[in-house]
Amino acid sequence: MHCSNSIDWAATGSMLQGIGTLAGVAAVIIGAHIGANAWRQQKLAERRLEMAERILTATHKGRAALSYIRTPMMFGGEIDKALEELKKFEGYSDWPRERRERMPLAQAYLNRVVNCRPQVEALDDCLPLARAMFGESVENSLEIIRQQFWALRTWYEAYANDWNGTDPAFTIRIRRAMYEIEPRDGEPNEISEAITNAVTVIESALEPALRLEQVGLAKASSSAP
Known about the structure:
The protein has one domain: Four Helix Bundle (Hemerythrin (Met), subunit A) (Up-down Bundle), CATH 1.20.120. Helix content is 80%, strand content 0%. It contains 7 helices and no strands. The chain has helices at residues 9-69, 76-86, 97-115, 117-134, 136-161, 168-178, 190-223. The mean pLDDT is 82.
């Protein structure tokens, strides 16, 4: 059977050009979508990297601040300043002699806690995004480090009020909490252990993530046009 229909090559060419144009548009759209996703991923990686650095910095500065507070060595100027502050309290001279003898040291340590407010605030600033970006364990560990500042405040106040030493076991606990010293064999140091464990959790979670984000950003930068 003879087919008399002829092919309209001009129309066919126009159609193919149209298909080619649509394919080009689709390629541009797909490329733009892929590029947008890559841009978002890069920005997220940058944000995670920045947050990881902030958390690690706040963690290490917080640990250093707690170490500074608990240093057994006390300068004379710190005691003198604490004594001047205590003398402003009404009735200070009426306190029992044993308590008055303890108060300057306790107040000097409390002043150290107050001086470390910037480090506490840095930990506070990290808390809102810590869980979302790095999980509950990182958030909880930051909170544990933060809590040690207030725990120390309580222990120093307890030291001031323990002037009569009616509970020897409690007195020993106070001494262990007050100072960053190596405990005897088998003796727990609650503050030191809490700090060490919290820092370990944060470092274990963030340091590998920090390295991965840095590698990812380096690759993204090298592949950028």
